Amino acid sequence: MHIRKQRLLTPGPTPLYPPALHAMMASDIHHRTEDFRQVYRACLADLKEVMGTAHDVLLFAASGTGAMDAAVSNLFSRGDKVVVCSAGKFGERWAEIAKAYGLEADVLTVPYGEVVTPRQVAEALERQPAAKGVFVQASETSTGAAHDVQGMAAAVAQTGAIFVVDAITGLGTMPLDIDRWGLDVVIGGSQKAFMIPPGLAFMSVSPKAWKLADSATLPHYYFNLKKEKKSGDAGESSWTPATALVLALAEALRYVKRLGMARLIENAQLLALATRAAAAKLGLELFAPGSPGSSVTALKAPAGLDSGVIVKEFRSRFGAIIANGQGSMKGKIFRIAHLGYFDFADLFATIAALEIILNANGHPVPYGAGVAAVQETCAHAMAAPAAV
Asked: Would you write out the chain's pLDDT as a tens digit for each of its 388 residues?
């Protein structure tokens, strides 16, 4: 075992789409030229298409957190009442951003591994009839759980609040009908299902959200939604863009359009289904069994084994990078991702490696048991009639 290819098995960054990587080599292009404007306009139009929305879509040189910050600083005022759904590390981030900007947040906190329910959101909005916004993660990547975004949206739609969804790992891994469900702000990031390096964030903004922008008074400068909308309409970014990443995104979006967003989502769902089946065969417990998502599967480490050992063994034995638990879950769970440029052959290898690691660390499992479960899921999916 002298040759070890590095494999990214984390929920971000994710494996890169090779043509997108090649596209980055053409980045010696000036961003205030018509050549680049054509690429930038295409990215904005293709993002709207793959996200399935008629709403405005804005693009930023930032991580997804930059767009989260922009959603608060551009659409709210100090003292505004909001509802924050906190079911993990990234829900806590919404609460921290709201606090940083002086919003009065009713934080709906549930234990890691569980989710906030639409009923809890509806009850919070009844308690806070003046609430101007509700914040949630579509996919809480720190725990592997997915929220019922559609159910929450139905509750928010009955009020004057806007619904702000961190879909950074939700886009491309779960259905999100932005316009029909009433998702006012939907945030994505480049290094997740879109298969390119970190550094770009994007967000859709509904007419209902734009109305809040007219009355918002929080300070902002770099992340200025109105300015970015005006610049985007002209085929440009307000500031110097991440040129290489925009070129990569253009290529990746062409691929997603050819594949179809529904099939990209189905790919993640099938990989997640297969991973859960393998875990059951290996005697591993899901961390979020009640509402497992498709962006990442979080598994409890076997009794007496620190999940950090599993993470390190993947790296040292196979050159593969998986994710440990975050915050209070560090050492207790490990996470295997299903988004990005990732297929069943990758998963065969991942589960085979996991079997070797478990056996080497005092948790005996039959070799091939987990792999067989993945193969069965794959074979069944291949035998099913193609979706029309």
From this structure: 688 888 999 999 999 999 999 999 998 899 999 999 999 999 999 999 999 999 999 999 999 999 999 999 999 999 999 999 999 999 999 999 999 999 999 999 999 999 999 999 999 999 999 999 999 999 999 999 999 999 999 999 999 999 999 999 999 999 999 999 999 999 999 999 999 999 999 999 999 999 999 999 999 999 999 999 999 999 999 999 999 999 999 999 999 999 999 999 999 999 999 999 999 999 999 999 999 999 999 999 999 999 999 999 999 999 999 999 998 899 999 999 999 999 999 999 999 999 999 999 999 999 999 999 999 999 999 998 654 3
In the chain, how many domains are there? 2
**How far apart, in whole angstroms, are the C-alpha atoms of residue 142 and residue 137?**
11
Separation between Cα atoms, residue 276 and residue 314, nearest integer Å: 19
Residue 1 falls inside a structural domain:
no
Q: Kindly give the pairing relationship between strand 133-137 and strand 162-166.
A: parallel
Please indicate, yes or no, if residue 154 is contained in any of the structural domains. yes
**Last residue of one domain, picked from the residues 218, 234, 259:** 259
Q: Is residue 292 part of a domain?
A: yes
Tell me the whole-structure pTM to 2 decimals: 0.96
Residue that terminates a domain, selected from 240, 259, 278? 259
245: in domain: yes
Q: Are strands 81-86 and 133-137 parallel, antiparallel or unpaired?
A: parallel
**Same domain flag for 232 and 309:** no
Structural contact between residues 114 and 156, judged by C-beta atoms closer than 8 angstroms: no
The boundaries of the domain holding residue 68 are 18-259
